[in-house]
């Protein structure tokens, strides 16, 4: 019974951590089926900017978190601009805010990942142990660069991924659900997030936010290989969010390395130590 209750608590925390992605998909759905007075992508840009401002105003996100989310927004736009030019996917429809075939709202689909990480960090009281920020950042940059360079040189994502696994082999992420504290390997967390991003990508293409070349005539599932690509790209978002949490003193785990039960006294002691 307790296990089922914990699972429900975990699911609820995940759900509320996905507020920005959920509102983003709501906007995608409405803009697909409702006639708008302006171009769809222009409306989505205004909508996403409004969401970001609202999250900051109601203190769902701090100004530092908003800054890092916009950082990932720009990283995503850079990738989009390149991928559109090489024909990896396309954005149907015209818009005033469409640059070189890429609507500016597209960066918010990457920013939504950063928002999720910030929300989850707070709601699950996330911390990491044995995290190696410099090496992790280097491999995250290599992963991002490989999305560009594999157009001209061999695709190095597998050796880079293996290198990242070596760097993260002892890195654990700790999180709280209810009265218990749990942990999992950070690499596993990346894979789980990547899987759900692949699911989200399928919904995004179904709603015609963008299309892969083989989806233009008839929609079908996005190739499962994209699951791996998303799992790798999550590392870049994590590095950006972790840099903010380091400044806030909320990055590293202190205390037992085993799954522990949190009592109010224990929790107060942890907060005092931080």
Sketch the major β-sheet: 4 strands, antiparallel
Q: How many beta-strand segments?
A: 6
Span of the ends, CA to CA: 33 Å
The helix/strand series, from N terminus to C terminus, equals HHHHEEHEHHEEHHEH
Which stretches are low in confidence, meaning pLDDT under 50 for 5 or more residues running?
Answer: 260-274
Beta-strand content: 5-15%
Task: Indicate the multimeric state.
Answer: single chain
What's the gyration radius in Å? 19 Å
Helix proportion range: 55-70%
Lateral strand order in the biggest sheet: 3-4-5-6
Averaged pLDDT, please?
89
Could you name the key traits of this structure?
single chain; 274 residues; alpha+beta; two-stranded antiparallel sheet; disordered C terminus; transmembrane; transmembrane helix
Question: Can you tell me about this structure?
Answer:
With 274 residues, the chain is of the alpha+beta class. It has one domain (8-248). Helices cover 62% and strands 8% of the residues. The protein is built from 10 helices and 6 strands, in the order ααααββαβααββααβα. A hairpin with a 2-residue loop joins strand 4 and strand 5 (180-185). Keywords: Membrane, Transmembrane, Transmembrane helix. InterPro entries: DUF817 (IPR008535). It holds the Pfam family DUF817.
What is the strand and helix layout of this fold?
Layout: H1 2-17, H2 19-33, H3 40-57, H4 63-85, E1 98-99, E2 102-103, H5 107-123, E3 127-129, H6 133-149, H7 157-167, E4 172-177, E5 180-185, H8 186-206, H9 225-247, E6 260-261, H10 264-273
Antiparallel strand pairs: 1-2, 3-4, 4-5, 5-6
Helix pairs in contact: 1-5, 2-3, 2-5, 4-5, 4-9, 5-9, 6-7, 6-9, 8-9
């Amino acid at each position: 019974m307790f296990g089922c209750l914990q699972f429900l608590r975990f699911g609820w925390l995940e759900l509320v951590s996905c507020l920005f992605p959920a509102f983003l998909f709501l906007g995608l759905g409405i803009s697909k089926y409702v006639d708008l007075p302006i171009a769809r992508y222009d409306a989505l840009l205004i909508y996403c900017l409004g969401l970001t401002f609202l999250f900051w105003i109601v203190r769902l996100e701090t100004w530092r978190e908003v800054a890092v989310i916009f950082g990932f927004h720009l990283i995503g736009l850079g990738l989009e601009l390149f991928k559109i030019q090489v024909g990896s996917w396309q954005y149907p429809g015209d818009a005033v805010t469409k640059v070189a075939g890429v609507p500016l709202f597209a960066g918010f689909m990457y920013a939504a990942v950063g928002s999720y990480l910030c929300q989850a960090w707070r709601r699950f009281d996330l911390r990491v142990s044995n995290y190696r920020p410099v090496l992790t950042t280097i491999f995250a940059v290599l992963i991002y660069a490989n999305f560009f360079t594999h157009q001209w040189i061999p695709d190095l994502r597998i050796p880079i991924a293996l290198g990242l696994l070596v760097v993260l082999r002892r890195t654990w992420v700790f999180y709280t659900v209810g009265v218990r504290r749990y942990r999992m390997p950070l690499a596993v967390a990346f894979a789980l997030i990547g899987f759900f991003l692949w699911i989200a990508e399928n919904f995004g293409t179904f709603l015609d936010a963008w299309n892969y070349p083989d989806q233009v005539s008839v929609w079908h599932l996005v190739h499962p290989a994209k699951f791996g690509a998303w799992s790798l790209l999550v590392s870049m978002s994590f590095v950006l969010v972790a840099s903010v949490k380091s400044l806030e003193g909320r990055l590293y785990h202190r205390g037992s390395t085993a799954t522990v039960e949190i009592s109010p006294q224990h929790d107060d002691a942890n907060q005092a130590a931080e």
